[in-house]
Amino acid sequence: MSDHGNPHPNIASVEQRVAAIEAAFDERGMAPGEVISEFQHTVDEQWIPQNGARVVAKAWTDPEFRQRLLASGRDAVAELGLTLPRHHRHLVVLENTATVQNVICCTLCSCTAFTIIGLPPDWYKDLEYRSRIVRQSRTVLREMGLDLPPEVEIRVWDTTADTRYMVLPVQPPETLGWSEEKLAQIVTRDSMIGVARL
Amino acid sequence: MDGVHDLGGRQGFGAIRYSPDAGAFHASWEVRVNALYALAVKRGIFNMDEYRHAIERMEPRHYVAASYYERSLTSLATLCVEKGIVTLEELERRAKGGFPLAASSAAGRTNVGDRERFLPGDRVRVRSDYVPGHVRMPGYIRGKSGVVVSESPAYPFPDAHAHGVEAADEPTYDVRFDTRELWPDSSEAALVHVGVFQSYLKRAG
Is residue A105 among the annotated active site residues? Predict the structure, then answer.
């Protein structure tokens, strides 16, 4: 290692480094090309926030489903055909109210319920969000455009194990009586992370 | 390990680079890295705890400077070399340049011997353990007390699972902490919930 913080004098670009692993996998018969195409498809078509939006819309319109969802998220989302990876053994759904704002983070890495609310956005994985949200939540949320009144209690959930979380946002009053399909269209990923209200 | 990855509560970081339509990926190589490490996990080359720990083992200057997916890439390559799938020489030859890997691992550990079952409402304290290997106890709760809210299903114990050490699965407890206790006089009021493995906890006296 040099004295200047550069761990190698002539580091290959990230693209070259990825290509090197891909070629090594290919030579070993691991078919990385197919896997990459499949993965892209899964990300684009299956791990999308619209899944969580359907869950939220159903919870808003079906009180019994809402109870089941809050009691056991994993079982309740399965009713809508949604699954979590086997190692995510528990989905905890956090109910926002007029006076409670739940917000999710992962200070140690980037854990999320990605099959339900989509893969985490870049800012969620950045050092700034991970370091500050647990200690300065009100300021951080304000910087992100969510200026909460002082009477709203903030609860931050740090995803340090394989339990996964999603936030159940408060239904905007003007949408009462809307159909489930129409409601699902207004639910954003960031409202299910808890950094936005609807 | 008390690594640079353990960011909760660290001070000095600036504004969040936020936009409501921020994506997960910004370049095709990022998608490829994610797909390749998922393939390695699926094939049993390594597990997610090993994957996370290999990121934590990155040289701190590299960790902080690297993008999220460069950290993924470094973990993937490190573990493939450590598991004997490929050599560093082959990777550097194919990449036509240097391929920095993470530092080697310290020893793991198994479950603590005096684990206790807790119930919602129990007051607990996080053990003041200093673990050289992988651990999922964020440093900001070490030695701090909180209240148990619920118990999760049992999970593989990360401190062991990241190191190939035998251990029993154990539950995590959703423990509620108060920021005023975590960072007295130096934080904004909020409750912080952390999923804390049973081995990290003792009953608060």
Answer: no
